[in-house]
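Entry 12.
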Amino acid sequence: MATRTHIDTWYKKEDYWAIIIALGLIVVSTTAFLGGATKLLPAMAINVPGWSGDFGKIVEYFSKNLVGVAYLFGFFAVVFTGAGRVLGYKTGNYLSSFSALFLLSIIVTVLGSNKFFKEWQLETPLLALLVGMIISNTVKLPQWFQAGLRTEFYVKTGIVLMGATLPFTVIMQAGPLAIMQATIVAVVTFATIYFAATRLFGLDQRFGATLAAGGSICGVSASIAIGGACRAEKEHVSVSISMVIIWAVAMIFLLPTMAKSLGLAPGPAGAWIGTSEFADAAGFAAAEAMGDERAVKTFTLMKVVGRDMFVGIWALLVAFLSVTRWENKTAAEASRVSFKEIWQRFPKFIIGFFAASIFTTFVIAYLDPKIGASFTKEVIGPVKSLRGWTFTWTFLCIGLTTRLKDLTSFGWKPLAAFAIGVLINVPLGYVLSNVLFVDYWLGIK
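Predicted 3D structure (tokens):
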């Protein structure tokens, strides 16, 4: 019966649809390339050129690429709306909302390509976040617009697309080191926040575990997963998510600024961001702000390959503690609950990330070097562009759903406990990325 239930409900999960959409795009594009049809994907790869005072350059670009913009919108509108219908979103509201979000992303991308904003380090991701926050905190958004603000859906799709641009050989080389660094950071940060919350401020143990997971593993997803594993109160999960959002948004600005002021190389800087950021979407924004693809690669290796993988392990450990220590149940009961949690709580989109990386790595290895170079240019290059658009929608959604007034209603104790974790996490991440393992991160190209 349990198997039947799982079969009936897997398609109700965003993770699976993110994999289907992103991996499907990669496979179909690769098949088309091998069959000689190479025009559609490059046409969708809208890359707005840099400009300063001459807006006519932008008008000319969009005039020449109007069909490509239509392809870009049409493809994602169809796949996201179709998936949303299965997931239970209201089709009309979602399509209208995504259309508005897409138009806003075009405006933000044009602004982010301007020389003035670039000089102020306001790259498109940061600008999208700021614009979203300004709108959400000054204008009451209509109810129908909420339907398309699917932050997790967009970032998961983008992460799977990211896998196609990151060779699996690099992942295998970085895996042990990234996991080692992630282990150190996860254990130290989790323990710091948990003991600060429970011992210093007297918060409930389940609340402390949920806060600690959000600050040490993968942000919002970890807060939800670990909160469910230990049966924390819904209010505790909500507060933990609020903490993650507050600090994740702050770190989008602080980490790149500190990295640049310290003169850090892109590789170690990206690894530091991957070690010390609290959410995938915010981390990508911070890594993108470094202005170098190497920072994005090392961030991904550190955060996605390293820290995000811990959510299953942490769900197991916390579920065991919850039913044996906090709920006074037997070890046998704990074992039954905890092993069930591993697969239920594991972020499935990570599997898609690895699958995309393995797929494109084998395709490039199979092809003649000259054809492989063409494949990289005509398939992998456009995939990077599409990945960028999914992240822009992600950052807009974060801003549009972040209301500063709501984030101040939870009291000072959770904020203080999380802040103590930050004070330990950020210096520790710097030492690991820029001192102990700096030679490795410098070698990532």
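Annotation: Residues 2-442 form one domain. The chain has 22 helices and no strands.
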